[in-house]
Write a structure and sequence with these properties.
By secondary structure, the protein is α/β, with parallel strands linked by helices. It folds into two domains: 268 residues, Aldehyde Dehydrogenase, Chain A, domain 1 (3-Layer(aba) Sandwich), CATH 3.40.605.10; 182 residues, Aldehyde Dehydrogenase, Chain A, domain 2. The protein contains 15 helices and 18 strands. Helix 2 packs antiparallel against helix 4 and helix 7 runs parallel beside helix 8. The protein is globular and about 70 Å long. Pfam families: Aldedh. This is NAD-dependent succinate-semialdehyde dehydrogenase. InterPro entries: Ald_DH/histidinol_DH, Ald_DH_C, Ald_DH_CS_CYS, Ald_DH_CS_GLU, Ald_DH_N, Aldehyde_DH_dom, Aldehyde_DH_Superfamily, Succ_semiAld_DH.
């Protein structure tokens, strides 16, 4: 792979093609590398080694684990450009966005390196004079994760950081579309001092088979999954057989709301950032836009003008802001959503263009009705449907009319409305006059069918620890 200075990041690519998955660049279609796959026996062995290694990892002082994670963080920063290039070549996002993701992913390692030293228990007043009550926190054991292609580094570090900080071992199955970033990130962890059996990246002949192994293996005590609600539901059901801990970050259908008292120019910039980052392929992307009728035309005009400045192309080229979608199935699915919306009465603000390959023109649709199919589906592409509303009550009812509850956004300068709407929206995260809400210091997660559990913040460690109650009698 050209232009990679730290060739040790690619040591895994020496694997023979017959025992590896081929990884292609969605911008060009060419093969950029291979990643090793394991058969069922090897996967079982990985889990067993993780179980053994976890015992020794958990015995290390929290400060020692913290120092190792800090070194991993430093190596991620030192190799930012190489990691970003690997990501762009296999995933498609522009280099600037890829570098941003490396920094975002690294921030979780830094955060949980610090939190490793702060997994406090409690001293509780005893019920009687001769008793003392204490709680401590202990690692749950072997944790595993299944991560998606859209954020191939950050979705791993957001899970691996707290798991390793807590004293767990961690086995992750990345997407077959973007495994190179995962192996490269893990290589830096090994260079930082994380034992290879404590952190393992695995691929298999079948994603479904790996999921079945993760959910049924008795040595695995925790599964973390980021992906679709449909798959998450199946994995949760499978985990129920032996009561595994789970955390699920699932589908979204984020409303982006512009009230009549909003700063329209700020709302346009927030909408641009929220909707079109990663070509609209994020779970927290604005999915449907509700704009008050009195500012509807102004917002649509300014929003579309801003969208037309976005440059579509290969992510390694200068000035590109929108890369390709991940594969042909994704492109066809997004195009089908657009076509159906137009059939139901939506109108593209500017003329639609069909682009070659996996590239798609960013599009703003006006005259969209809340009842249209496009409003009820997670688009996962560069399409922005805009709906008009009249009253706050009508808006809240429409915004909450979905099975999902991950992220939401609104723009208003009325403090009374801000509090009222923020509390009324049925979502785990609310961006108020802000289009980018993800950060390592805040809890990330949803409600309803968007998942359970929280990642990041001080709550992230709790997902990988058990609370043990100690009762001292005869005092």
């Amino acid at each position: 792979m050209q232009h990679i200075k730290n060739q040790s990041l690619l040591s895994f690519m020496a694997t023979a093609p017959e025992s590896a998955v081929a990884v292609s660049n969605p911008a060009t279609g060419e093969i950029v590398g291979h990643a090793p796959i394991s058969d069922e026996s090897a996967l079982m062995g990985s889990i067993e080694r993780a179980h053994v290694a976890q015992k020794e990892w958990a015995k290390l002082p929290a400060k020692t684990r913290s120092n190792i994670l800090h070194r991993w963080f430093e190596l991620l920063l030192e190799n930012k450009e190489d990691l970003a290039r690997i990501m762009t070549l296999e995933q498609g996002k522009p280099l600037a966005e890829a570098q941003g993701e490396v920094l975002y992913g690294a921030s979780f390692i830094e955060w949980f390196a610090e939190e490793a030293k702060r997994s406090y228990g409690d001293t509780v007043p005893g019920p009687t004079a001769d008793k003392r009550v204490v709680t401590i926190k202990q690692p749950i054991g072997v944790a595993c994760a299944i991560t998606p292609w859209n954020f191939p580094i950050a979705m791993i570090t957001r899970k691996a950081g707290p798991a390793l900080a807590a004293g767990c071992s961690f086995v992750v199955k990345p997407s077959d579309s973007t495994p190179l970033s995962a192996f490269a990130t893990a290589e830096l962890a090994y260079q930082a001092g994380v034992p290879r059996d404590v952190l393992q990246v695995v691929l298999g002949e079948s994603s479904r088979k790996i999921g079945a192994i993760f959910t049924s293996h008795p040595l695995i005590r925790k599964l973390s999954f980021t992906g679709s609600t449909q798959v998450g539901s199946v994995l949760m059901a499978q985990c129920a057989n032996d009561i595994k801990r789970t955390s699920m970050e699932l589908g979204g259908n984020a409303p982006f709301i512009v009230f009549d008292d909003a700063d329209i120019d700020a709302a346009v910039q927030g909408a641009l950032a929220s909707k079109f980052r990663n070509a609209g392929q994020t779970c927290v992307c604005a999915n449907r836009f509700y704009v008050h009728s009195s500012v509807y035309d102004e917002f649509v005009s300014k929003f579309d003008a801003a969208v037309q400045t976005l440059k579509v192309g290969n992510g390694v080229e200068e000035g590109v802001t929108i890369g390709p979608v991940i594969n042909e199935a994704a492109k066809q699915g997004i195009q089908a959503i657009i076509d159906r919306a137009i059939e139901q009465g939506a109108q593209p603000v500017t003329e639609l263009k069909i682009l070659d390959g996996l590239f798609m023109q960013p599009v703003v649709l006006k005259n969209v009705k809340h009842t249209m199919d496009i409003v009820q589906e997670e688009i996962f592409g560069p399409v922005a449907p805009v709906i008009s509303f009249e009253t706050d009550e009508e808006l809240i009812e429409m915004a909450n009319d979905t099975i999902y509850g991950l992220a939401s956004y609104f723009y208003s300068q009325n403090i009374h409305r801000v509090w009222k709407v923020a509390e009324a929206l049925e979502y785990g995260m609310v961006g108020i006059n802000e289009g980018i809400i993800s950060t390592e210091v805040a809890p990330f997660g949803g409600v309803k069918q968007s998942g359970i559990g929280r990642e990041g913040a001080k709550l992230g460690m709790d997902e990988y620890m058990d609370v043990k109650y100690l009762c001292f009698g005869g005092m």
